[in-house]
Every structure is written in C-alpha cells, then in structure tokens.
Write a structure and sequence with these properties.
The protein is mainly α. It contains 7 helices and no strands.
Amino acid sequence: MARTKHQAARSQSRKQPGKKTTRPSSSPPPSVPSLSLCDLFLVFVLNGSSFLSNLRLPDQADHLGEQQQQEKKLVHKVGRPQRKPRRLRPGTRALREIRFYQKTTGFMIPVSSFTRLVRQVTQEFSQEVNRWQAEGLVALQEAAEDFLVHLFEDGMLCAVHAKRVTLMKKDLDLARRIGGRGQPW
C-alpha cells in the first residue's frame, strides 16, 4: 500500500493573503455586566451585598480569567494519569552509549579521579616524587586509557570467540596473555 500525503486543515486564525485582519474589539466578556454606577447602586440596594461579591468589574475580568485558566491547566495536568517512561529494548541503550563514546574525543576517566589515583600510587612507591606536571598527567592518562580500550576490545573478541556476549575475567586474562598489536603486556 502506497503512502499518501494528507493535507492538514487550516485554522481560521491564519492570515489569508489579500484580506485585512481586524482586531477583536475590547468589549468586556459576556459574563461581565455593563452597568452604570447608578444601576449598580440600585442593584446593591435591592439585592443586598451578595450581588457585589459575585460581580466582576471589567479590569478584574481579565485577571480572574487568567487565574481560572491556570487552575484549569493544573487540574488538567493533575487529573491526567502520568505516562510511564517508554521502555527501551535490551541493547538499545548499550548501542547508544557505544555510538556516543565513539564520537567523543575526551577522556573516559574523570581527570580529577585519575590524578588522585596517580598521586596515591606514586606516594606508595616513592616518598620523594610528589609533584607531577600537568602535561605528564595528561600523557599518562592518554596511555592508560589507550591500553584499557585495546584490552577491552581484545577481551570482547575472546568472549565472542567463546560464543558469549558477556565479558568475563578469563577473557581479559586471555587477551593479556595473547598480547597482540605489537604491545607486550
């Protein structure tokens, strides 16, 4: 079955070429009575003070209309049941993360955490070396992340070869033992 394009119905509020648009008159809405001061006084005397409490003056009409619209919006939002977030199929999020990290060029490990780890390891092995240049830390982090990325790639290849999807410790051990890419790890 071929797809067809359906024309959307145009709303009346759009400007049509060649026609002049007229502004709506500034007359009060029909719920607000247009009474003179004398008429209001007579109504007050005849009906008592209850009439004035229900009466809206033209300058208050717009303000009260806005309040009612806001209340309707709140009721509409509260009255409608909340939609459950759409559940993604298994693997969709993983593929999205893979695409995201393939596009990025920055570090995978946060710089502050890596720096803290480097200083901690340095202090364990040598009390005399306690300063690092910023370029040295960047170079060390670049090399460490490159090593880990290639190790995980080789580990995944080992897992796929074993007809598994899950990466296990034995896959990483085998990848390290086999080596590869000219790097003796």
